[in-house]
Amino acid sequence: MENSYIVDLRSESEYKNGTIYGAINIPILNDKEREEVGYVYVNKSVCEAKKLGLRYAGYKLESIFEKISHEFSLNKNIIVFCARGGMRSFSVHNLFNSIGIKNYKLDKGYKGYRKFLRDKFPEILQKINFVVIHGKTGIGKTKVLNMLKNEGYPVIDLESAANHRSSFLGGVNLGEQNSQKQFESTVFHKVIEIVGNKRFSENEKINVFIEGESKRIGKIIIPEYIFSAMNHGIHICVDLPIDVRVKNLMEDYFKIDEDSLKRKDYEVRKNILDDFENNMFFLQKYSSKNDMQRYFSLFKEKNYEELAVSLIENYYDSKYINSMKKHEFKFNLEVSTIDEFLNEMKKIYDYV
User: Alpha-carbon torsion 194, 196, 197, 200, what sign?
Assistant: First the structure.
């Protein structure tokens, strides 16, 4: 869908629950209006519901026209859709075609897109061979994935797609997690981008870097077809010294606190620290009372470095060791720096 302007005409809550990757939301009926139209449809008549829907939609047509006509002037392919390809997209599609703004409508709407994704995704994954990077918390897997991506290597970043770092502190300072449907749409789009890249032969499997994950990333469940493809990939285990890992954790979770202090952005800092403290309670079922008291004491004293060391030694590493028993690693690496980590991944990519 390159050079396309994809318009989701559904309500804001429908859009938030999941949309086509890259789509922008211009509701023809917002949540409240949609509820009212639905009520009239059920309790009065179809005709009355259509009239009310047209009245609400009419208020928005000028704004919709301005946005769509601007993109049309840039030679974009205009694609509109609603839930099932019904009245919402049908009316906008026909109206704009009638005034010379050519556009396309997804016949079965978002529901049809979801079916296409579920049917097609497992098939497309057959063209990919995942190179799965494992390692203890804090070794910088996500950082190295981003560096590889910036250098042109094919990468799928599941944590970015989920908007979660895949640990009990994984949501700190990231805002709300993406929905399950949005996660799947984002990963699907990224896989399509890689498979469609002309630098790769159509007849060869493409090696793609991905971070080893458990079945869940926060509230997201990795679909079985993705998880299975990862399990059948090439597995690499990487380890770094604990001081480097602590430094990485400090950058991931606490640097924003220092930055907000420098800006005197105390409200931002308070929200981040509240978020962090709330997530800490997750540890209660895995930690002793004494350990929990120590964690909160270090947290309140802002002794973040010592807190990171304690979490690594008492929680993260033991959890990691148990999870790694199910994998057979083709490569086991010990590196000293992030740069060395990156260079080893490049060598392995060339080798496999």
Answer: positive
pLDDT digits (tens, 9 = 90+) for 129-141: 999 999 998 999 9
Amino acid 27: pLDDT: 95
How many other C-beta atoms are found inside a 10 Å radius of the C-beta of residue 39?
12
pLDDT value at 261 more than 60: no
Min mean pLDDT across 228-232, 307-311, 342-346 is at 307-311
User: What number of CA atoms fall less than 13 Å from residue 229's CA on the CB side?
Assistant: 24
Confidence of residue 104 (pLDDT cuts 50, 70, 90): very high
How far is residue 20's CA from residue 37's CA, in Å, rounded to a whole number?
A: 25
The amino acid occupying position 108 is: K
Q: What domains are defined for the chain?
A: 4-107 (3.40.250.10), 121-352 (3.40.50)
User: Which of 212, 209, 189, 194 minimizes the C-alpha distance to 145?
Assistant: 209
